[in-house]
Amino acid sequence: MIFRHSLQKVPSLLSSCVKLFSVQKTRLLDTAASFPYRDRHRENDRDRSWSRNPHHNRDYERDRSFRGGGGGRGFGQPGRTLLKPKWDLSKLTKFEKNLYVPHPVVANRPQDEIERFYAEKDISVYGKNVPHPVFSFEEAGFPDYILRQIQTNGWKEPTTIQSQGWPIALSGRDCVGIAQTGSGKTLSFILPAIVHINHQPRLERGDGPIALVLVPTRELAQQVQVVASNSGRTSQIRSVCVYGGCQICIATPGRLIDFLESEQTNLKRTTYLVLDEADRMLDMGFEPQIRTIVEQIRPDRQTLMWSATWPKEVQNLAEDFLSNYIQVNTGSLKLKANHNILQIIDVCMEHEKEEKLSNLLKEIMREKNNKTIIFAETKRAVDDLTQRMKRERWPVTGIHGDKSQHQRDWALNEFRTGKLPILIATDVASRGLDVDDIKFVINFDYPKTSEDYVHRIGRTARSNKTGTAYTFFTPDNAKQASGLIGVLQEAKQVVNPKLFQLERSGRGFMDIKAMTDIKAVTDIKAVTDIKAVARTLSMKIFECGGSQERQSHD
Q: What are the Helicase C-terminal domain coordinates in residue numbering (predicted)?
């Protein structure tokens, strides 16, 4: 009887268990959805974590996780909680953006003199009604408070991009500027931004920024903020680096979306937009975030876009965001490196790189000016190389996307001050690194593209100084040989003959005899290493011993 009574209760017990399991499963999924996920594949040099906390201190690499490819938090679109405003231009408050009064000397400058300037400076300009370039700060027509700050900073004359960029920006025109790092482009948009802001109504409580500068990384945001703060001292302009209540906001795309979603700021008053290093932001997958942000800004804004290259993706962005714009190119659009950099390419095997690096640093550290940045391809490589070099007592520090902001700031400060003159970094972590006295760049790992190579070595030879770039190039990099040769030839550098052999090789490795002159090898270990490589590749090798030459199939 008791047994029968117990059996009657089984269905109800099972039903209760199913309900309990369902509740626990729901709670578990909710917990998992909000739990910070971290992928273990660190070799891809990207962090795949996210956070629902808008104050979470992430760098751009975390910034782009599940965002760059169309994601945001979870699997929705970036900024999915932001409503797209329905702009009615007839109801928007009017604002001033054409603030340029040409200097009489500039207005009356003969066209042939302008053409000579363009030819001498290797500058090309496209667009309608292009303002004449200015040749001095006085000709730019800046207010007295700007000229006083220029004099305080000791600047002598405008750079090429500033000569043409300032008249365009002050005229309220949209502009695309193609210029390399170190060309002075930051001042090209910051000084006109200050003038623009001072011609707008004062900000009220709750208003967002008037000028917005979007950059790819936190380090670059900090560098731009320094320039903005130094330039705006005499004009009472406040800038903030977002990584309310300010006139200029400098931010990475993902971080700004966090602030917009949490309603810590808004872009209702923004009338001056700058996209700095647009090509890099697109490379890092920020296009969805950029488009979401631009939707929040009134369409009659002034937009300035700056880029080091002019690929199709950047062109499409310009066509979508800019109106009747003027394009300014400094130099040829063909990929080229700074001609003040001595480029040395060491074609070697992968296992040789560490010893070669050690020998190279011994020579570099004997120099008085020895500040050196070493590029590695992945975060793991940065960590491993940094630890090995620390054990060997090298004055070294490293940065990458998994480092906290405090760790990165500390490392960069130690590097800038020269306390630790060797910095190991990934490509992305080094973006925005503005240190004028870097004398040497070492590519421990060759990058995936020639564009990245040019940007890496551009960390040295800033402000018309000279520098040296060493690169370890292995057979694994054979596919990049052609692009590298083009960069070297354009800069009139000596091209290592082994690069041509790698370029001709479609197999991804080069002939062992071409890689190393066997007849010149006397070290037994070197011969053994070569034979081991040859055996791995199922190649024939000719070993020289005395006057006899015998064929080996080892």
A: 356-503
